[in-house]
Structures are given as structure tokens and as C-alpha cells.
Design goal:
Blueprint (H helix, E strand, L loop, with lengths): L1 H15 L7 E3 L6 E3 H17 L3 E5 L3 E4 L2 E12 L1 H5 L6 E8 L2 E9 L4 E6 L4 E3 L2 E2 L12 E4 L9 H11 L5 E3 L4 H9 L5 E4 L4 H13 L3 E3 L13 E4 L4 H10 L9
Parallel strand pairs: 3-5, 11-12, 11-13
Antiparallel strand pairs: 1-2, 3-4, 5-6, 6-7, 7-8, 8-9, 9-10, 13-15, 14-15
GO biological process, one term: transcription antitermination
Cofactor: Mg(2+)
InterPro entries: IMPase, Inositol_monophosphatase-like, Inositol_monophosphatase_SuhB
């Protein structure tokens, strides 16, 4: 997994120096961008993983589901998380590779090529950044915490809900950040750089490695309502654990606008 993520990262770095030459297309909508760099990176990851474990299934952002006869084992891959950042010359993007066993994420790798940061986690073996053990933060109150989130762009739903989330949270926290790359945000929660991260419209490949990174670093991963996490359900909230209940309370409150006074 590490070899595959780093090999894809090296190819992406070469393409990062050729941004003006890349052909850019759209997928689901005009702001959902994809380039030949995404497709090449997925091809690299898929080839290396297939060579190592040819029987495992494969789910990739660009190529969809495919793979071998062992459906209980599945690679989940986002070859370039933060494509818009990449295409606009922003260094906040990464490669995601996760392994699911019978639906449970058991290993994850997030590689951030421009910073040369390699985040690795395996079930029961901790979370690591460039070979050093990492842990979630110990901040225990919202007022001392810095949160990260995904802001819904033009093609995504829930803009009114997000506006209510900001109204509820900005007065109660030390700061809210948006990097534009779920892979980084979840890895940074694991490393204690952020205290929590949430987003309501994601895919499994966006969040899969981050789930086990956070959990193995001592944090918590749930849905945005606080229910058990299903990476296929399209939303996630991860935190250091200490502020999780308070954050979930605010996120649930944002689902319902206040009734006007009579």
C-alpha cells in the first residue's frame, strides 16, 4: 500500500509541474474536475496492488468497482484527493489507499507528496507519520479547539445546513478551517493538528484511510449524527474523542432551522 501510494505520488508530482498542459474534464458537474493525472495515478496504484494481491477487489474513484474473486477483501482508492487544489497549484492534495476486510477498514495510507508526509495505520498497530507514532490532540472543550470541515461547493447539497452549522459553531470554537482535501483533514486530526473534522457529502474513497488513522491515533469516527460509521453512507465526523459529543450535538441541531418566534 505504501509503495503504491508513493509511486502514484511521484507521478503526480511530475504532473504538478505541468499544470498548464493537463487536459481537464468534468464528472458529475461543472465543478467536479478530473484530469489525466487522476487517471494515471489510479492506474499506478491499481497495477501495484493487483500485483501484490491479485484476488482482492478494487474500488477506485476514477474506475469504479472491479477486481478479483475475493469480495471479502477490497482496496479502496482515491488516487488524487484534492483534485481542484492540485489543478489550481495548491499543494494540499494527497493519495488515499485503504484496505477493507468484510466491510471494515483494517489498514490505510495517506501520502501527501508536496510535503512528503506519509500517514500509515493498521488495525491494532497504531498510526504513524513518516515512521513516528502520532496521537490525536488532548483538547477537551470546543472553545479551545480548531475544527476542519468540507464546505459544499456548487454541485453539492446541504448549503443551508452548512450555513446553520457555521452560525452555531463559529462563536464556540478557536477556529474552523477548510483545506479542500478530506485526506489531509482526517490525517491531520490523527496527528493532533486539528481537533475534529466533518463533512456531509463524501465518498468511501475520500474517507476510508482517515477512519483508521484517526481510530488508531486514539480518536473517534462516526457519522455526522453520531451513529456508527458506514463509509458508504456519504458522511463522516472524526475527532479526538473529547469534543465529539459536543460537536455532534451542534451538527444535529443544524439539521433543523429554528421556528420563527410568534
Amino acid at each position: 500500500m505504501v509503495d503504491a501510494a508513493q509511486a502514484a505520488g511521484r507521478g503526480l508530482l511530475r504532473r504538478y509541474g505541468q499544470l498548464s498542459e493537463l487536459t481537464v474534464q468534468t464528472k458529475a458537474g461543472p465543478t467536479d474536475l478530473v484530469s489525466i493525472a487522476d487517471q494515471e495515478a489510479e492506474g499506478t496504484v491499481r497495477a501495484l496492488l493487483a500485483r501484490a494481491r491479485p484476488s482482492y477487489a478494487f474500488l477506485g474513484e476514477e474506475g469504479g468497482a472491479a477486481g478479483g474473486g475475493d469480495a471479502t477483501q477490497s482496496w479502496i482508492v482515491d488516487p488524487l484527493d484534492g483534485t481542484t487544489n492540485f489543478l489550481f497549484g495548491c499543494p494540499l492534495w494527497g493519495v488515499n489507499v485503504a484496505l477493507a476486510r468484510e466491510g471494515e477498514i483494517v489498514a490505510g495510507v495517506t501520502y501527501v507528496p508536496v510535503m512528503d508526509e506519509l500517514f500509515v495505520a493498521e488495525q491494532g498497530k497504531g498510526a504513524w507519520l513518516n515512521g513516528q507514532r502520532i496521537r490525536v490532540s488532548e483538547r477537551a472543550s470546543l472553545i479551545r479547539s480548531v475544527l476542519a470541515c468540507g464546505i459544499p461547493f456548487a454541485d453539492k447539497p446541504d448549503h443551508p445546513v452548512f450555513a446553520r452549522e457555521m452560525a452555531l459553531l463559529t462563536a464556540e470554537v478557536a477556529g474552523i478551517r477548510r483545506t479542500g482535501a478530506c485526506a489531509l483533514d482526517m490525517a491531520w486530526v490523527a496527528a493532533g493538528r486539528w481537533d475534529a473534522y466533518w463533512e456531509r457529502a463524501l465518498n468511501a474513497w475520500d474517507m476510508a484511510p482517515g477512519v483508521i488513522l484517526v481510530e488508531e491515533a486514539g480518536g473517534i469516527a462516526t457519522s455526522v449524527t453520531g451513529a456508527a460509521l458506514d463509509v458508504a453512507a456519504g458522511n463522516v465526523c472524526v475527532s479526538n474523542g473529547a469534543i465529539h459529543t459536543a460537536l455532534i450535538d451542534r451538527l444535529n441541531a443544524a439539521l433543523y432551522p429554528e421556528e420563527p418566534a410568534t
